[in-house]
Amino acid sequence: MGGWKMNNKTLANTSLLELLPEPLRQDPDIIAASHAVDKEFQELVSAIKNCLTFAGVNTAREDVLDELAAELQVEFYSSDLPVKTKRNMIEGTYLYKYMKGTPFAVKQLVGDVFEEVLLEEWFEYGDEPGYFRLVTFAGMPDPGQLARLFSAIDTVKRASAWLRESFFSFYESELPVYFGGAVHTGVYQVITQVEED
Hints:
Layout: H1 16-19, H2 22-25, H3 28-48, H4 62-72, H5 83-98, H6 103-114, E1 117-121, H7 122-125, E2 131-136, H8 143-156, E3 162-168
Helix pairs in contact: 4-5, 5-6, 6-8
C-alpha cells in the first residue's frame, strides 16, 4: 500500500492534539493547551459512550434511558415505568410527534404503555361526532399514572377530539376451564302431497 498505514484508533485512545490539523500540531502553545485538556477530553469521550441513537435503545441502561427521554421530551414518560415501557416510548417519541392529532398517535402512545389497546372512534360505537373511547387489556393503573396518561393523550390527540370513556380490563382467573358440547338427535321425515288419479 505504499506509504499508507492502517490505523485502528478510536476516540478513547486518541489525544486531542492528534485531532488537530497538522500546522496546529507544531505550535508550542497549542501543544501545551492540548496536553492541559487531554484528561477532560478523555472524560468527555467516556461520557459520550452513554449517548445513543434509537438503534441502541434496546441495550441501554435504565439511567441512560431516563436521560434520553428527558432530552427528547417524551410525553407521559416517568422514571417509575417498567424498562420495556420506557424503551417503547423512547422509540415511539418521534412517531407520536409526527402523527400528532391522529387516532393512530393516541393508540400508539397508549399501546406503548399498556401493550394491548383498542381505540374506537365515535362512528364505530354509535356516539356523537368527535368522541372516541379506549379499551386496554392490562388492568387498571394506579390513579397517578392514570392522570398522567390522560394528560399525555391530550398532547397527541387532535383538539376537536374528546375521550368519552376508557375501559381497563384484564383476564386473570384461577378457576378451572371446562368445555362441553351437546348432541341433538331426531327423526328426519319428508311429507309430500300425493296426487290422486
